[in-house]
Amino acid sequence: xxxxxxxxxRIDHCVRSLAAxxxxxxxVNLFPAMDKTAKKRRRKEGxxxxxxxxxxxxxxxxxxxxxxxxxxxxxxxxIDFPQAIYKFGRTSILHEGELNPRLQFNDSGSxxxxxxxxxxxxxxxxxxxxxxxxxxxxxxxLSNPPQISVLGRQYNLNELWGQRSKIRELxxxxxENENVLD
Length: 182
Fold this sequence. Notes:
- The chain is of the alpha+beta class.
- The protein has helices at residues 6-19, 23-41, 47-67, 81-96, 122-133, 164-174, and strands at 75-76, 79-80, 103-106, 112-113, 117-120, 147-150, 153-156.
- It has a 3-stranded mixed beta sheet with strand order 3-5-4.
- 35% of the residues are buried.
């Protein structure tokens, strides 16, 4: 990719890592793209707050894509989804070089939330899509974009850059509720 931004390069590597079923490498590449996107949205906020708020903004869409359900505002022992992803995922990978054992991803599609947050690996894909569809990233492109299925619809990933409203409408259509993400 010539002249690709940091966001599109990181997303490209994230997608390739997901295809290779390397969840940790996918996250290593996803978090900088997420941070740069969140910084566009909340320029004055510190890194932790802006990433957690980005995840909180997109939590409904992320869970819909990951699980075909809307899961929001889950809080176990003072830890909610944005905090778990930031604290046990992003911060641990950045500072320790690996996921905290309290955050795990599985390929069985099961969810287990408690002391350990064990989520389907589809959550990584959904968080990647949330970065792609962020309006702040309109105009980004991948040189060799994959096809991706979002709630049963196939898209060329390049069609989705900055298209949050398109995916929001799709979620509302699938759930037959125009207010499902409010």
